[in-house]
Each structure stands twice: as C-alpha cells, then as structure tokens.
Amino acid sequence: MSNATSSRLDRERLAVVLATIGVNIIGVAGLAFAPWSDWRTGAGLAVINNAILLAHVVRRRDGLLARFMLFGLALGFAELPADAWLVDATGTLDYSIGGGPMLWRSPIWMPFAWEIVAVQFAYVGMRLMHALGGVRGVLLTGLLGAVNIPYYEELALRTNWWRYVDCAMLLHTPYYIILGEFVIACGLALLGWRLRRAGIGAALLLGLLGGVLIFLAYAAAYAATEAAFRVTAAA
C-alpha cells in the first residue's frame, strides 16, 4: 500500500470512528426526550454503530479497524464480571429500569455497547499518542473519558437504560465512575497503541486484558472515593 493510500485510509478510518461518536452523542440526546425508550433503544444504537464500523471494514478491507472491533468485542464480554460486581457487590448499579433480556447481570446489548466505547477510545487514544506523544496523548484520552462519561451517565437515566443508587454522586453520576473512566480511557489508549501491530489473537487477548482493567479501575475508584466521602461525612 502506498503512503498516499495509507494516509487516505487513516483519514477515512478516523472519520468513521468520529462518526460513531457523533451518532452516540446525538442519538442519546434525542432518546432522552423519548419516554418510551428502554433496552431496545440501547440495543438499536449499538447495532447502528456496529453497522457503521463494519460497513467501512468491508468496503475498504480495513484490517486494522477489524482488529479494533475484535478487541472491543472481547473487551465487551470480558467486562461482564465488572458489571456483576457493581450490581451485586456494591449495590450501586441498577439495570432494572430498562427491562429486556439479561446476560448474567448486564443487559444483553451491553457487551456490544462496550465494544463501541473500546474502539472509540482505543483508536482516538492511539491517534492522540501519535500526535502529542505518549504521556500527553494518554492523559488527554483519560480526560476525555472522565468528561465524556458523565454526559452518558446522566442521560442513561433519562433513556431508561440504567441508574446508580447509594453512592456519592455528581448529579446522577457516581464519583467512582468518573475516576474509573479516567483510568479506563488511559488504559484503552495504551492498548490501542499495542493494537497497531497486533494480529487477531493478540487483539482478542488485549480485549480480555481490557476487561480486567475495567474491573480493577472501578474497584479501586470505588474504594478510594467512597472512603474519602465517608471520612468527609464523619469530619
């Protein structure tokens, strides 16, 4: 592949990933005004975003984005224990408002939603690391995650997808989620950097590693923020 062709493919790939981000932002905002929204709208949005990515992969024979999607899919299923822990062990995450079929303790569409999130932050993070350098690129990706997630968490309540209870929150977003998402987004940038040269097997393995990262990030963030707020309340 010539440099010009590779550069054009890079631009098209970035445009497609950014398009899924735009679809999410606009779609979630619109669904917040739909009182009938439930698990079906979450599943539908995941299908639309996957269709956008897959259409590009097939049309352009984009092996790199295909590996990012496999990475995201592995991460989405590897994240299920983290969801179960948040639901059962902490008692702070409640999916019951959305209804619909469940996969363990998560809505059946959740692995595919996480797949999209993983592709977005891993790919954008990789590009930021290339443009700004490793440390700055990773930190900026983490900041984007920490700022971006409260938007979705706030609107998830309005779209009847999930809610949080019995924890310290900024409006309807737990502080531990904000801190955890910063760590997760930083980790996704680093995993995305490794995906540049990864084969299919390595992409799947990195996705499983991403699922472990999510569990550890949430567990550490929950312990830290809840302990801090208990100390503050006792003072």
Shape: globular
Unreliable segments of 5+ consecutive residues: none
According to DSSP, the number of beta strands is 6
Distance between the termini: 64 Å
- H/I helix tally: 8
Order of helices and strands: HHHHEEEHHEEEHH
Largest sheet: 2 strands, antiparallel
The percent range for strand residues is 5-15%
Describe what this molecule looks like in 3D.
The chain is mostly helical and 235 residues long. The chain has one domain. It is 77% helix and 5% strand. The chain has 8 helices and 6 strands, in the order ααααβββααβββαα. It has helices spanning 3-31, 39-60, 63-78, 80-89, 110-132, 134-158, 175-195, 200-234, and strands at 93-94, 102-103, 106-107, 163-164, 169-170, 173-174. The strands form 3 sheets. It has a two-stranded antiparallel sheet. The protein has a two-stranded antiparallel ribbon with strand order 2-3. A two-stranded antiparallel ribbon has the order 5-6. β5 and β6 (173-174) form a beta hairpin. α1 (3-31) runs parallel beside α6, α2 (39-60) packs across α5 and α4 runs parallel beside α8. The longest helix has 35 residues, at 200-234. The chain is globular and about 60 Å long. The model has no long low-confidence stretch (mean pLDDT 95).
Question: How is the secondary structure organized here?
Answer:
Blueprint: H1 3-31, H2 39-60, H3 63-78, H4 80-89, E1 93-94, E2 102-103, E3 106-107, H5 110-132, H6 134-158, E4 163-164, E5 169-170, E6 173-174, H7 175-195, H8 200-234
Antiparallel strand pairs: 1-4, 2-3, 5-6
